[in-house]
Amino acid sequence: KMNLGLFDIRDINKLNNFVNFSKPSIIFHLAAQSLIYESYNKPLLTFDVNCRGTLNVLEVTKNSKFVKSLVSITSDKCYENKGWVKGYKETDVLGGVDPYSASKASAEIIIRAYRESFFNNGNRRCGVSSARAGNVIGGGDWSAKRLIPDCVKSIRKKKIIKLRNPNFNRPWQFVLEPIKGYLILAKKQFEYPEKFSGAWNFGTEARSITNVETIVKYIINFWGSGKLRTEKVKKFYEQHNLQLDIKKAKKYLKWLPTYNIKDSVKVTTEWYYKVLEKK
């Protein structure tokens, strides 16, 4: 029941052929270079994948009449960082001084331009939205320079967990939270494209941000072993505090976060423990 195609999202011909072959009614676009650290090492690749990849998906959607709903996932890092403690709203200014954040802000501008130019003029009935989430945790993440996978690797090798920014606050959320939001959004804009197309935040409840050190202590506790220490490493820019305002999604999509921070870390740690230790 599945059509699987593995290809570079920047190859518009392959993308177009696959979409025309599988004929989806709804498209979720999540293909990206998703690591801030990697964006410093490979800025050209980051911009190319995140901007041109998104552009290609929009162009193919525009020309495929059977597609009725497109949800394109960007990032909570797409906002211009004002150093606020309060949450960023969907109407706040986009921006970014690191390559990853700038690429995501650029993708947002591309999405909006296509939505306003080709989908909101009555010629093409298709919902087009961007979804902004961040600091997603959960099983199955094996990427390098990611907090939880790195902690798990260190614990299993009986190495000390080294933290570069123990006091950085993040709105950690369990992976099923934003996915639930994407599914609700895709369905609603499939039915009512004019009403639900736009930008949407999927984050945690206000005042739920937690620092890195607390998360690692949770992991050590749930795993049953491990030690941590702070170490100074080569600095690259990261946002210190970042919180999303989720009032819009709560009001119009009736979407609500389910897991608190501690539960999110617990179910995530349990996944790695069951897969790696219990096979």
Explain what you see.
- The protein has 279 residues and is α/β, with parallel strands linked by helices.
- It is built from 10 helices and 10 strands.
- It has a 4-stranded parallel beta sheet with strand order 1-2-3-8, with helices on both faces. A two-stranded parallel sheet has the order 4-7.
- Strand 2, helix 4 and strand 3 (127-132) form a beta-alpha-beta unit.
- Helix 5 crosses helix 8.
- It starts with 11 loop residues before the first helix and ends with a helix.
- The model has no long low-confidence stretch (mean pLDDT 93).
How many helical elements?
10
Count of individual beta strands: 10
Straight-line distance between termini: 28 Å
Strand order of the largest sheet: 1-2-3-8
- Taken in chain order, the helices and strands follow as HEHHEHEEHEEEHHEEHEHH
Strand content: 5-15%
Helix content: 40-55%
Cα gyration radius (Å): 19 Å
Dominant shape = globular
SS class? alpha/beta
What number is the mean pLDDT? 93
List the uncertain runs: none
Largest sheet: 4 strands, parallel
Structure keywords:
279 residues; alpha/beta; four-stranded parallel β-sheet; two-stranded parallel sheet; 10 helices; globular
